[in-house]
Specification:
Layout (H helix, E strand, L loop, with lengths): L1 H25 L5 H23 L14 H20 L7 H17 L5 H7 L7 H31 L11 H4 L11 H33 L8 H47 L1
Helix pairs in contact: 1-2, 1-3, 3-4, 3-6, 3-9, 4-6, 5-6, 5-8, 6-9, 8-9
Length: 277
């Protein structure tokens, strides 16, 4: 059992480190200082992940024992980064897969680039002096990243509604899966869970619109990060789409936990009324 936990924690740590290092490994133009910084970030992230999953007690990762919540989020981010890396590699290492992904991404970007859409706002937030082909890459990156995030959110909603997450495979341990949530502090736990669920869903919906506006405002005051750089564009597009999706998924999960607690309370009250009668 201990060996199995070590292997699983090691595999998770390796995947996290590989995700962080992937753009720097497969794309050219990385400086020596940049490589050292990315290697350090990958090592720190891998170490934190290993320590979290190898221990019996939780520290900060939510829904640790309620798959596939974290797995779905990781897969969504991994797919978004991997697809964008393969598309950007077309400039130096053309492949059929990269060309197919670029063509698909161009179609998705055009489809989602309609007035007032998050993709249109992100394209408008790109550097004004960027060449047209780079603006097209921003559109492709924004479209693909946003599509992956939408698929992840819809997949999780289906898992919650149709597959009875998180109690399909056993009881849900509140403390292990929500280590940073104190059920004894403040108002009633149902009120706090529902409030946090609504706040997370609202933020997840608004952030894809707010982030491009903040980038546009910041460009007037400070020198913005150029989206013409491959790694900057990949991480910007992935974070822009992944963070809102993660918040929406967390809000859906908290709402589901609140529903389970309310249902358990209702059953307990009904049983108490029958015993009193």
């Amino acid at each position: 059992m201990v060996f199995k936990r070590l292997v699983q924690a090691g595999a998770r740590a390796f995947l996290i480190a590989f995700l962080i290092a992937m753009p720097a490994v497969f794309l050219p133009g990385v400086t020596a200082d940049g490589s050292q910084m990315i290697a350090l970030l990958a090592l720190v992230a891998a170490l934190l992940t290993f320590v979290e999953y190898v221990g019996d007690y939780p520290s900060f990762i939510e829904f640790r024992d309620a798959p596939p919540f974290n797995r779905l989020r990781f897969v969504a981010l991994f797919v978004a980064v991997l697809v964008l890396v393969l598309i950007w590699r077309q400039d130096v290492h053309p492949t059929r897969l990269g060309a197919a992904l670029a063509g698909f991404g161009a179609g998705v970007g055009q489809l989602l680039d309609f007035p007032y859409s998050p993709v249109r706002l992100m394209v408008l937030a790109a550097d004004r002096d960027m060449r047209p082909e780079r603006v097209g890459m921003v559109r492709i990156g924004a479209g693909l990243s946003y599509l992956v995030s939408l698929i992840a959110v819809l997949s999780f909603v289906v898992i919650v509604r149709l597959l009875n997450w998180p109690i399909r495979n056993g009881a849900f341990n509140f403390w292990v899966n929500l280590p940073l949530f104190d059920p004894t502090a403040g108002a009633d736990i149902l009120y706090r869970l529902r409030r946090d669920a609504h706040v997370n869903v609202a933020l997840g919906f608004l952030l894809p619109f707010v982030i491009p506006a903040v980038m546009e405002l910041a460009s007037e005051m400070i020198d913005p990060l150029s989206l013409a750089n491959a790694q900057t564009m990949i991480w910007t597009m992935s974070a822009w789409a992944f963070l809102p999706a993660s918040l929406i998924m967390r809000g859906v999960a908290l709402g589901r936990i609140a529903g389970l607690i309310e249902e358990k309370r209702r059953r307990a009250h009904a049983q108490a009324d029958l015993q009193a009668a």
